[in-house]
Structure formats: C-alpha cells, structure tokens
Amino acid sequence: MKNSDTRPNILLLQGEDIGRHLGCYGDPVGRTPHLDRLASEGVLFDNAFCNAPVCAPSRGGMATGCYPYSLGNHHMRSTLVQSPRHFVQELADAGYFVNWHSKLDFNFEPQEGWRHADHAWVETAPPKQPFFLYENFHVTHESRMFDQVPDWHGSLPPEGVAIAEPDISAIKPPPWLTDCVELRRQLVRYYHALSILDAQVGRRLQWLEEHGLAENTLVLFLSDHGRGLPREKRWCYNAGIHMPLVVRWPRGLKGGAICRDLVSWVDIAPTLLSLSGASIPQHYQGKVFLGEGRTDPRTYCFAGRDRMDEVFDRVRVVRTERWHYIRNFAPELPWAQCQTYMEQQPIMKIMREQWRQGTLTATTSCFFQPCKPEEELYDISLDPDCLHNLADSAGHANVLHGLREALNSHLLQVSDWGLISEEDLVRQGLVKDRLPEYRARSWNLAPDYRIGPDPIPLTLRELATLNPSG
User: Fold this and answer.
1) What percent of the chain has pLDDT over 90?
2) Which H or E run includes 259?
3) Cα separation of 230 and 228, whole Å?
4) pLDDT in tens, 208-221
5) Is residue 4 part of a domain?
6) Which residues are bridge partners to 259 per DSSP?
7) Omega before 457 cis (within 30°)?
8) 470 is a domain residue
9) Phi, psi of 355 (to 5 degrees)
10) Residue 264 to residue 67: CA distance in whole angstroms
11) Are residue 290 and residue 331 in the same domain, yes or no?
C-alpha cells in the first residue's frame, strides 16, 4: 500500500467495566484529563449504548455488527461452534494492517488469520499502510474492586504517572446500594483505576502525535458495558448499557461537538468499514453514524441479557433518548441471584446480610426482591437511576405500547435465539456444551441468604418446569 493512501487510520480504545464516569461526561470525581481532551477535540456521543451489559456478548456484537442474541453468542461464557467473521477481516481485505492487541472475549474463537498482529503496538513504529489498531484497558475491570485484587491487574500505569486517590468523602454511591465505608472504598479503587486508564490512553494519543499520525487517525474510545457493581454490570438498566463514546478525527470531524443521536455498538463495525471504504456485509444489523455513508439516525437502541455464567435470565431492552423499556421474560426469577464472581464484591456480603436482617431501605431493597415485574418503563429525563417503574401508569400507556411493539418487531426481525433453550442449541450443534461447568457453581450461598425459588434454573427448559411455589 502506498504512503499516499489518504484513508483514515483507525485506533479503537476500549475501557473495561466503566460507565460514564469521565470528566467530559460531568462526573466530578472522575479525573480523566486525556479523555476530556479527546472529547474537546472530537465528538462526544451522549446517547451511545452497548447491546449487552456483560463482556463477551457485548464485544461479540461489536465485533460482528450483529446483536448477540441473533448470532447465538448471547449467553455469557458460551462458545459458538462456527465462528462468524470479525469486522476487521473486512478491513484487512481492503488493505488495512490489523493489530488487535489484548482482550478478545467474543464467545467465539475468531477465524484463522483474522488479524496480522497482536503485539503492543504503542511500543513499536507504526505500519507503513493504513492501519487498524485495538487495545483493551483491563485496569478498571470489576475485580479491581475486590478485597483481593488479581495479580494480573497491576497497580500503576506503566508510564510511571503518579495517580492520586480520589477523596472518599466526595464519592456519590448509586442510591440502590447501601452507602457504607466498604462501598466507598470499592469506588475509590474504581476511580483510581479510571485515572490510570486515562493515563494509559494519554500515552497512546502521544504515540500518534510522535509519529505525525494524529491528523488522519480516527480515534474511538468506548466501554464494553457498565461499571462492575450490582445492578450495573450484568443488568439492563441505564447504568449497565448507557456508555461513553468519544470519537476524534481532525481531518474528518469538527471538534468540540456533542451528538445526541442514538448509537448502538452494532453500529461500530459498519461505520468503521464505511469510513475506510471497505465493503459492509449485507447481514450486518447496525447503521453507519459517521461520514459520507451516514444513514438516518436511529429511533431505538436494543439490548439484552441472558445466562451470566451460572445465573440464568432473559431480558430485552428498548431505549430512546428519553424512555427505557425492559421486558423480563423470566419474572419469577430474582435480580440478586448468586453469581459467584459478583459475590466477591464486599458490598454484596453487606447487603445480603442486611436483606437477611430486614434492614434494607425501600430503595436499597429494590435489587433484592424475590421476583421481577414482566415489564419496566423508566423516564430517563426524570429518573436516570431507573427506580420508578411507570409500566402500570395509565398516563404512560401509549408510550409503553409503542416500545412494546418496537421490541416485538425487532426480535422478530433478528430472530432472537433467546427463544431456544441452551440445551437445544447444544443439541443442534450451534454452541458448545458449557452447562456442566456452570451448573456446578449454582447456589454457593447459605440458605438464609438465598432469594427466589430453589433450585434456580440454568436454562430456558429448566425455567419452563420451575414451580415457583415449591
């Protein structure tokens, strides 16, 4: 490829387990000067949404341009037998050099030869042709907030930048969690890690400038899903799917703008392919939201969740700028099922004990109810925390009906695999059988701390035979 090629380079930077807690999104505790600068020089998207509130389905949807529940990679820690094409394969076919460095986690193994390299590109010279570079920043992963932080996290940015811990008294915990010292300490770790992430992003932006590449490199920063706290990560509320998205491209975008158009993570792949001049596969379900190929803005964004390791559920979401509609296909199951990984958070131990003793407040008990409503409707303009369900409000019947029909149409259009029990997906040879390893984890709690029916089902078929009164 000649150096005269004017197509944009692409740098995709992905934070892990972070919400909109950046300074550029108005969080007073978030110290993110590099990301704030990126936003001031680019476009800050105010209505961007992932398609699943957990890692692998979210990333799998972004990588394929298709909703995870339309591909079969919708269960967390499932594995497709036949791997779909990753969108970077289209970029490679169009002459781009592809370096996908660090995390994969798509619920499928990419096809052989899908990337050219996977090394730490920030430590090397740039390619001589248009390039796509990716990096995941794991420092903010949920486990950063555990009492025992895994060794793979590290503690300081490799650049050696000094990061001050945030003021524990200045932190505002979410209202659905008990405000206590233990939770605030978790959040101190989170905001500290977020500052480290910001410093790491700053080093990548500096790399572009050092090599004279900033002007014609499209930089995207986004997260995979919400912060690793109960009712955020793994859950389809605002905090779980409403994500940061910042895009800078000096040669092609006017800086300092705020875009309120709805953007979905299934839109990332077709947009990058459009901007690069690569072919967009016809089966893609996303829309192009930047450049000359930009399509009409979305009316709705959609998302969903299914099995999360050993915890089964089926939830689907419709989102507009104002309205947040949730359909719970398993209302007989509780929100706060025992998910072994999540139980390592100090706040879960505290709140389960408070639930057992009956000392939770009306607000903090919302996550610990024994069952869910079939439908939830929230006015985000008044209730961004999704605490006041309007689904039974006569004054919102028309809104509810419209969103209900939008979801029905969407699920029919994409052929939702969530309708098929995972045992049947395994039997049909579509996914590998990973149910035994997660069935062995179920109910790792003492009886006094359990919520909901016993046993909790792991699949749709088991749910169908559930006797809630038993």
Assistant:
1) 90
2) strand 257-264
3) 7
4) 999 999 999 999 99
5) no
6) 45
7) no
8) no
9) -65, -45
10) 10
11) no
Q: How far apart are CA 372 and CA 333, in angstroms?
A: 7
285 and 401 within one domain: no
pTM: predicted TM-score of the whole model, two decimal places: 0.95
H-helix or E-strand containing 14? strand 9-15
Strands 97-101 and 217-223: unpaired
Q: Model confidence over 80-128: pLDDT tens digits?
A: 999 999 999 999 999 999 999 989 999 999 999 999 999 999 999 999 9
Phi-psi label, residue 461: left if phi above 0, alpha if psi -120 to 50, beta otherwise: alpha
Please indicate, yes or no, if residue 395 is contained in any of the structural domains.
yes
Residue 75 DSSP SS3:
coil
Separation CA 269–CA 97 (nearest Å): 16
Same domain? For 95 and 179 the reply is yes
Q: How far apart are CA 353 and CA 362, in angstroms?
A: 16
Tell me: do 443 and 396 sit in the same domain: yes
For the chain, the straight-line distance linking the first and the last C-alpha, in angstroms and rounded, comes to 67
Question: In total, how many domains does the chain have?
Answer: 2
Asked whether the beta carbons of 315 and 334 are under 8 A apart, the reply is no
Longest dimension (CA), the chain: 71
At which residue do the structure tokens 């079969």 appear?
72
Cβ proximity of 291 and 274 under 8 Å: yes
Question: What's the pLDDT score for residue 237?
Answer: 98
**Residue 2 pLDDT > 60:** no
Give the closest residue to 319 by CA, choosing from 210, 435, 238, 385.
Answer: 238
What's the pLDDT at 311? 94
Q: Are 95 and 278 in contact (CB under 8 A)?
A: no
**Domain hosting residue 104, numbered range:** 9-298
Q: In what order do the strands lie in the sheet with 375-379?
A: 301-305, 315-319, 323-328, 375-379
The verdict on 286 and 433 lying in the same domain is: no
CA distance 230 to 142: 10
Rounded to whole angstroms, how far apart are CA atoms 202 and 204?
5
262 and 313 fall within a common domain: no
- Domain's final residue, options 298, 320, 336: 298
202 and 235 inside one domain: yes
- 1 in any annotated domain: no
Specify the CATH number for the domain of residue 44. 3.40.720.10
Residues 6+ apart with CB under 8 A from 117: 97, 98, 99, 101
CA distance 173 to 161: 27
- Considering Cα of 230, then 234, then 235, then 240, what sign does the dihedral take? positive
Look at residues 236, 387, 386, 366 and name the one whose alpha carbon lies nearest to residue 313: 236
Torsion-angle region of residue 76: left (phi > 0), alpha (psi -120 to 50) or beta? beta
**397 phi and psi, to 5 degrees?**
-60, -40
The reply to whether 43 and 146 lie within a common domain is yes
